[in-house]
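ok trying again, last paste got cut off:
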Amino acid sequence: MATNSIYQTPLSSRYASKEMAELFSPATRFSTWRQLWLWLAKAEKKLGLPISDEAISQMEAHLVLTEEDFAIAADEEKRRRHDVMAHVHAFGQNAPAAAGIIHWGATSCYCTDNADLIFLQKGLNLLLPKLANVIHKLSKFALEYKDLATLGYTHYQAAQLTTVGKRACLWIQDLLFDLRNLTRARDDLGFRGVKGTTGTQASFLAIFGGDHDKVEELDHLVTEFAGFKYAYPITSQTYSRKIDADVISALSSFGATCQRIGSDIRHLAATKEIEEPFEKDQIGSSAMAYKRNPMRSERMCSLGRHLANLNKDALDTYAAQWFERTLDDSAIRRIDIPSSFLTGDILLRILDNVVSGLVVYPAVIGRRIKEELPFMATENFIMRLVALGGSRQDAHEKIRVLSHEASAVVKLQGKDNDLIERIKNDEFFQPIWGEIDNLMDPATFVGRAPEQVVKFVNTEVKQALDPWVDVLSEEVSQLSV
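nice, full thing came through this time. structure:
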C-alpha cells in the first residue's frame, strides 16, 4: 500500500531528524532484540552452558533484519499473538544452530525493557548535544545585545527597562535547567539485565544448577555487553516504570521551556521588536500576502504543549502497575516513549533554527521605549527630588496626578504622551528641570543588566557547556517544512 494512503505520524514523516526517527524504527527495535539475544547467549556460553560456536556465529551474521525477516515475524505474530515469540521464531530460521537456545531463561521483558533502556540512553545522547548548541548560540546573541535597552513587561504591561540580552538570559537559564535535568536522567539510567519472569532470577538459577554466583555474573556480563555501568538490583518482570516517568518528566519540562520561549518571541514579533527568520519565498498567509507569521515559534509552542503533557501518561502508567507487572503499560509506552523523544528532537531543531537567525529591530524597540519612558522616568524624578531635599510623598502625589492626566490624553484622545511637558511646566519640579533629559537616558534604566549578562555567560553558561565544547557548532538546523 502506498505510504500516502495510510496515516503516518507527522513527528517522523514531517518534522523529526533522520537519526531520531531511525532510533525508534522497527528495524532498530528488532535488531536490538537480536543483539540482546546474542549477548545473552555469549554470556551463557562463557559461563559454561552448552551453546555452540556455530550458534553464536549464525546469530552474529543475522542481527540486521531483512524485509523477508519482517514478513516472517509478522506472519508468526498473527499466529501466536505474541511479538517477542514471533521474533524468536524468525531469528531461529536465520540461525538454525541457535534456534533451541535463543531466549534461554529469559522473559519477554529481557528484550523489550532492556531495548527500551538502550533507546532512552541513545535518545538522550542525541538530544543533549543539540541542546548545548542552542544554549551556545543563544549565549552569543545575549552578549551581542547585552546593552540594547528594551521595555520590560510584567503582567504584559510595560515595566522597568531591561536589555534584549538580559531577556535572552532568562531563556538560557531555563534551558540550563533542562540540560541539567536531561543529563541527570541519562546518567541515572541503569540496565534491567537478566531478572526472569518476576525479577527473582529463578529461571537462571535453575539453568545454572543453583549457582548464585553464576547468575550474578550473567547479569553483570550482559549489562557490560550493553555498555551500561550497572543493572538495577531490584526489578519485577519490568524495570520500574518510574524510570520512564523520570526521563519523560525531564523532557516534558523542556517542552514547557519551549512554549515559554516561543510565546515570548511571538509577542515580540507582534510588536515588531524581534522576529524569527523569514525566508525569501516564505508565505505568511494564503489570504493576507503582507503577513510574516511566526510559524516556527507557533510550532514550537504547539509541540512544546504536546511534550509538556506526556509526563502525565508516564506517571499514570507507573501508578497503574499492579504487583510484579500488568500489560496495560505496553501499548501506551509504544506511543509515548518514541513520541517524547521525537518531539524533543523536533523542538531542538526548531529552537536551533530560530535562535540562529533572530532578527532584532533596534529602531522599533527605541520607539516603543520612547512611548513609555516618560512614565518610567518618574521614579528617577522622585528619587532626585528627595535627594535635593524634597518630600517623597508629595513628589509621588504630583507624579500620580500628572501621569493620569497624560494617560488620558494618550488613551482618550490618541495623542502622544505629554507627561514630560506637564512636568516641565509644573513649578513643583523646577529643581530638576535642567536634569530631566539626563534622567531619561534609557541606559540609566537597565540597572546591572549588561553586567549580569556578561557574568552569567562567562560563569554559569561556560561551566555548563564545558563538557560539550567539542560538539558546539555554528551549523544551522534546516527545517524541511
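cool. The CA atoms of residues 244 and 314 lie 6 Å apart. The first strand starts at residue 149 and ends at 154.
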